[in-house]
Structure formats: C-alpha cells, structure tokens
Design goal:
Number of domains: 1
Radius of gyration: 13 Å
Order of helices and strands: HHEEEH
Strand content: 15-25%
CATH superfamily: PNP-oxidase-like
Structural class: alpha+beta
Helix content: 40-55%
CATH class: Alpha Beta
C-alpha cells in the first residue's frame, strides 16, 4: 500500500496537468458496457491509484460515475510495485491508449 501523501501527489498532478490523458484512459480501456455513447463522456478525473489500477470519476452526460481501470487491461503491466513507478506506468498506459484508439 502506498502512502496517502504520495498517492495524492500523483492524483493531483494527473488531474491538474494531464486531464487529457485520464480521459484517454477511459476512452481506451473502460468496459464498453459502461458507456453506450462515448461522445457523452465529457471529463474524467483520477480519484485513486493503487497497486492494481486507478479509479476514475467520469462525467457522462448528466451523471457522474466512477469506473475502475486495471493495469493488466491496459497492456502497461500487471502491478505497480512502488509509487515511484507510477510515472512509467501512466506514460505506458497513455501510449497504449493512443495506439488502441488510432
């Protein structure tokens, strides 16, 4: 388990500086059953990060919903062994998301 301070630092950084990447994660890796029409997906904000994945709060039309994205489903790795590896994991995820959506 990672410290709350370390996880909050990653979450704040992603939401403030890389909100576009978080939205890209949802578009590429969310379960298709979660969203019937991706055009209604307006925004996404990371809420948690842990050893196995991230939770993302999505604004979808007039509703908000939280989804789970597991690293193993992104092709970026199975587990995040330390919070210091978060940058590499998240960069790999965005690269894989871009490839998937191209």
């Amino acid at each position: 388990m990672f410290s709350e301070q370390d996880t909050q630092s990653v979450i704040e950084h992603m939401n403030e500086d890389h909100a576009d990447a978080v939205l890209l994660y949802v578009k590429a890796f969310a379960d298709p059953a979660e969203f019937e029409n991706m055009d209604l997906l307006e925004s996404a904000a990371m809420r948690t990060i842990d050893e196995s994945g991230i939770d993302v709060l999505c604004q979808y039309g007039t509703t908000d919903r939280t989804i789970r994205i597991n690293y193993k489903d992104t092709g970026a790795g199975e587990r995040l062994e330390s919070i210091s590896g978060a940058r590499k994991m998240l960069v790999d995820m965005v690269m894989n998301a871009r490839k998937k959506l191209a």
